[in-house]
Fold this sequence. Notes:
The protein is 38% helix and 19% strand. The chain is built from 21 helices and 19 strands. The longest helix has 33 residues, at 516-548. Mean pLDDT is 94; it is low at 29-33. Residues 13-14, 16-17, 20, 224, 226, 230-231, 239, 241-242, 245 line the site of iron/sulfur cluster.
Amino acid sequence: xxxxxxxxxxxxxxxxxxxxxxxxxxxxxxxxxxxxxxxxxxxxxxxxxxxxxxxxxxxxxxxxxxxxxxxxxxxxxxxxxxxxxxxxxxxxxxxxxxxxxxxxxxxxxxxxxxxxxxxxxxxxxxxxxxxxxxxxxxxxxxxxxxxxxxxxxxxxxxxxxxxxxxxxxxxxxxxxxxxxxxxxxxxxxxxxxxxxxxxxxxxxxxxxxxxxxxxxxxxxxxxxxxxxxxxxxxxxxxxxxxxxxxxxxxxxxxxxxxxxxxxxxxxxxxxxxxxxxxxxxxxxxxxxxxxxxxxxxxxxxxxxxxxxxxxxxxxxxxxxxxxxxxxxxxxxxxxxxxxxxxxxxxxxxxxxxxxxxxxxxxxxxxxxxxxxxxxxxxxxxxxxxxxxxxxxxxxxxxxxxxxxxxxxxxxxxxxxxxxxxxxxxxxxxxxxxxxxxxxxxxxxxxxxxxxxxxxxxxxxxxxxxxxxxxxxxxxxxxxxxxxxxxxxxxxxxxxxxxxxxxxxxxxxxxxxxxxxxxxxxxxxxxxxxxxxxxxxxxxxxxxxxxxxxxxxxxxxx
Length: 557
Ligand code: SF4
C-alpha cells in the first residue's frame, strides 16, 4: 500500500477510518494546488537558478517500510544534491505568530538566521512556556502540526533512501505580508523554514506509521468515539467520513447545533456544578437538542433555540426587528461580492490568499417593496479573468452606488468592508468614493441575529442586548445567508448550478481554460448565483416585515 503524509494523518484520525476506507485510495494528494503550485515553482526556481547548479525538479522518493506499506513523497527541487526544497500552499503566519513568554517579554518560537532561514529557537528549550507552545507542532490536529509531520515524513524517507548523504530539507511557505507590485515576484513572496531542529521527528513518524498499520490490521468497522479534533467536523481538515459517522445526528437540531456548543453545558447539583463537554454527551447518547435536560440550559439563546425546537415554531423580537430595519434609508442598494482567494497574488497590491474581487451583484429597491421580480433593477459585473479588471469594476460600482447617500445592505459586513478597504489602498484615487460606500454599509445580519453596539445605540435595555432577534428550528444554530433565506424562501437556490461562494470562485477559475460556450455558461451561472444572493437579502427583509406585521413599513427619511 502506497501512503504519503495525508494518508498517514487520515489513518491516524481514529480506528474506524481504516475500515471505512478503500485501501486502493489510500494515497491522498495534498489538496488540489497543482496550478498555483506550478506558478509558485516557476517563481521559486527563477530565484534559486544558477547556470552552474545541478537542479533536479519534482523528484518522487519511495521507501518500503513494513507490513507492505510503501512510503512516498514528492520533493520540488533538489539543488546540488544537498539542499531540498518543498513548496507549500500555506502562509507562514501561524508559525511566525507562535510566541512564548520569558519573564516580561514575548519571543517568537521561530527565529530568522543570518542565512534568511527560519528555525526553532534552540536557546529556549528549557523554558516551560516554550515547551507548552511547541506541543502544537507535534499535534496531528493542528494545521502547523500537520506541516511539521509532512516535514518529518519527507525527512524520514530521505534518510532511509540516502542514509549516507547529508541533505538539508527546507519548506518554502508563503509570506502573507508580501504585496505583489504587479510586475514581478520577489523572494519576499515566501519564507524558508528548516524544522530539523525539532526533537524526536523520526519517533513522531514511526509512532504514526505503526498506529496506522494497527488500525488497518484491526479493520474494525464498528463505531468508535467521536472526537472533535480527529473528525474535524465543519473544519477545513474535516474527515471524509463525517457524513457517515454523524448520520445519526438529527439535521439542524443535534446538540452540536446549540450556539457555542463547544463550551459545553453545566449541570448544577447539590454537590456543585458538573461541566459536560458536548462531544462527551454525544458519545453518551445525547444526540438531539431535546435529549438535554432543559434545566442544564442557562443561556437565554439556548432556551430560545430549545423553545423553537420543542414547539416547532419561529421566535422573533418584534421591536428589535422593526427598530433595526427602521434605521434604513431608501433607495436601498443590496450589494454582494464574489472573490477568489489566490495563494499566489495575481494583481498589483494583493498578498497571498487576498480575496480578489471578481464579481458584484447590486439590486436597487427604489421605493418600498418595489423589487417584485429578481430581474428588476439589477446590476452585475463579472471581471475578465485574463486581465486586471478591478478598476473597471470599481468605477461601475461607484457609479451605481454613489447616486445617493442611502443605505447599502450587505450580509455579514466584514467581508465586503474588508474588500472595499483593500481596494481603497490599491486604488487611492477612489478613496473618497469608497469611503462614502463603506460609511453607508448596513449589515442585515445585525438585524437577523444581533449586534450589541447597534442595538445599544437604539437605546435597547441590557437584557435585550445579549439575546438574538430571530430563531427558527431550520437554522441549526447558523445565521448564514443560505440558512436564513430558507426560513422565508425554501427553494431560493434550488434551481441554481452554483449554490455557494466556493463553487463560484472555482467555476470562475475554470473560465480561461474553457471553450467559449462553456465560459459563457459559467458566466451565466455566476450571474444567476450572485443575483440570487442580493435578491435573498431583499426577500429576507420582506419576510421580516411580514413577521413584524402588515401595518409595518420602513419609514423613509
Ligand atoms: S468521521 Fe470521525 S469517527 Fe468517523 S472515520 Fe472520520 S475521524 Fe473516525
